[in-house]
Amino acid sequence: MARRSRTVPTTSNATPGRSRRPLGSVRRAQQITTYGVGSLIALGDQSYLVSGLDSWDVSEEDMLHEPRLEQRLGKSGFRRPPAGLNGSSGVKVRRFPQTYSCPECHALRPFRDFGGKNRRDNTCGRCGCPLTPSRFVVACEKGHLDEFPYWRWLHARREEGRRSTCSPGTAELKMHSTGRTASLRGIVVECSCGESASMEGAFSPHSMAGLGIGCRGRRPWLGPQAGEGSCDSTLRVLQRGSSAAWFPETESALSIPPWHDRLMLQVQRHKRHLLNKVDLSPKSEERILEFADEEGWLAPGNYTGEEVVRAVHALSGALREEEPEEEEDFFVLEAAKPIRQEEYRQLCTVTEDDPRNEHFVCVESPGVREAQLPGVERVMLVKRLREVRALRSFTRVEPLMHGPTDRLRAAPLAESPEIDWLPAIDVIGEGVFLSLDSGRLRAWESADGPGTPSARVAHLRANHERLLRAHLDESGPEEIRSPVTPRFVLLHTLAHALINEWSLDCGYPASSLRERLYVDDDMAGILLYTATSDSAGSLGGVIAQGEPDRLARSLESALARLSWCSADPLCMETETAGVNSLNLAACHSCVLLPETSCETNNVFLDRALLVGTPDGDTPGFFS
Fold this sequence. Notes:
By secondary structure, the protein is α+β, with helices and mostly antiparallel strands. The protein has helices at 30-33, 67-73, 150-155, 207-210, 262-269, 271-274, 285-295, 305-321, 338-347, 368-371, 406-409, 438-445, 453-471, 486-505, 548-562, 570-573, 608-611; strands at residues 7-11, 24-27, 40-43, 46-50, 63-64, 77-79, 91-95, 99-101, 107-110, 132-133, 136-139, 145-147, 173-177, 187-191, 196-198, 236-239, 247-254, 360-364, 376-395, 421-436, 514-520, 523-529. Among the domains are: 29-94, no CATH class; 152-197, no CATH class; 253-319; 334-402 and 425-469 and 482-611, no CATH class.
């Protein structure tokens, strides 16, 4: 069952060593998925920017370890977001944007120039009205963020030949709404020199470039003057609360054998005391046993000295065999990466419940083989699992497309290169793993003809390749190939169908269930689990859905629901749907899930691959 995470207080002072009254709080899990480093957060009537890792007040108690994920990301470990307990000041935030407006006198100027009673007073010194943060900010695809350039927006439109003595330092700006329309045309900015203009056209992709306004490379979450100078990316105007202002890039891994064992976790946590720093070889057996005795590992009923020494040697061997990962194939989906292959093999293997199995118990669902569920080869009940989720970086304007140039677009979480950790959370849950019949699957996906699954998915592949090509520069590969296959779309859609069905049967909201996909030429499995920090994650009972009778009923009911959608025939017959046209027969009435439940932001879905098309041209896997 999942554990409810503590809330993380946020303070306004971003200077380490100083403490201020907390402005608000968010859950720890939200520091990874919603309000992470570099994101904008509204606290009351104020707007702030979550500061970089350099300002985080973390302690040894906040440490997390997951060896496979550490190797994947090249980090020494992870830290939970500080909870603001035991003297910790929590997570620091910085005021952003700095530009505010007064709804009474319409003044538009930096917050510090309004003359409130004190530094944090959010009122206009002239009329006493509460101030409003600027609705508009500017950002680029490389993650840079800056104030909206109101003065330049006005004066760059000046007709050629007209002169003005106005300057940004002396100009007095005002912003007001005409009330004639709810569009941007009704928002007017005026300057004391007489210039005025509405905000109409501000959200056009090239509105800033058309006025000669470029990106200054600012990174205000790392400090007032942080940045990398000039930037050649196109500057885009965003609303302050827009989802496009922050797209997190997260990585996760399950704790699987041998790293799930309680002793192995202890050895990993104290490896600096047990391994030589230079070559990671085990220290002397005498020193190992001495340390184990000091930590109480050798107490009666715990572990023997032989078990401790064996665990230290196992960790040493695993770490010494680890080599830096080769350059990733950017045209491989996350579901096919090596870290998923290791998990898939373990999920197909029984790991009995034992007091020492801290984070992973996986057993075969009894009676599944006799039940002979059509199309299903294996069902495993994961009675206990632990997932570590880490925030790797983030982007703005456009989410990462996992292409060759994505590393250039990812924004840093810290300014100091000495910070060798990432923020992460670990959640405990349970789930059901199922894999499809490999023989039946190969026969289905290898069929030839105009209406076959391969032909249908070709539309998605073409749209995906066009999107990848649009995000690549000259340094990208000449050949662009989409990794999307009929097998992936089938398993992904099946996961969505079962989550929607289980949310009706077992009492969980769909947002409290998650999918984890395992798909390549040798894998065809999905893990549906409750690794959530919400209170709904404590209900239990998801593994009961893996019992043969219940699974058969839920699968039959899910397929029946997918055979018809309230948006049909438009939903089933469409050739382009979803974000960037990366879906086929999938909409909010039939397949889509909350974003927290889906690995791919609700794309690469098609229910026709499960149930077939009404005209029979495309056979469904479960038809």
